[in-house]
Amino acid sequence: MDAVYISRNTVFAATTGAKTVLKLISPTGYGLKIHEIKVSMDGVTPSAVPATVDWGTSDETTAGTSAGSPVTTQIKGRDQAHGITLGQNFSAEGTTYTIHDHVFVPQFMGLLILQNPLGLENQSPAGAADSFFLRINVSANVNVLASIKWSRA
Hints:
Elements: E1 3-8, E2 12-14, E3 17-26, E4 32-41, E5 51-58, E6 71-77, E7 85-88, E8 97-105, E9 111-115, E10 122-123, E11 130-138, E12 142-152
Antiparallel strand pairs: 1-6, 1-12, 2-12, 3-7, 3-11, 4-9, 4-10, 4-12, 5-8, 5-11
């Protein structure tokens, strides 16, 4: 593994409904391995139902509308450019999402940290332009912070 990166969104005021928080779009020729996912929320209502957090891949038929690029920092390996396109805090959702997994996370001070064991990382296909996304569906207005630790596959 040459390099490991962390991409994190800026604070995102999520409103009711499903919103993509982070998306990593790989060009044709290589895929992505996801090593860790983190999501936290600052909801103030203890009785709020949990949010759902989905992650998976998209073939980018319709990409959606991103509100800029997330901060990406290389944290391991030799210095190299990562070569992918990143998006955060989407105002319009893309299409053709394939959900790999999903969980409930409390909106009231909720926290999710998922670490994938080496060799069992979620991975996007390397043969075509593809993306890995992290999407949240809330029932109340909450601020969301998220990060994805990843490397090229």
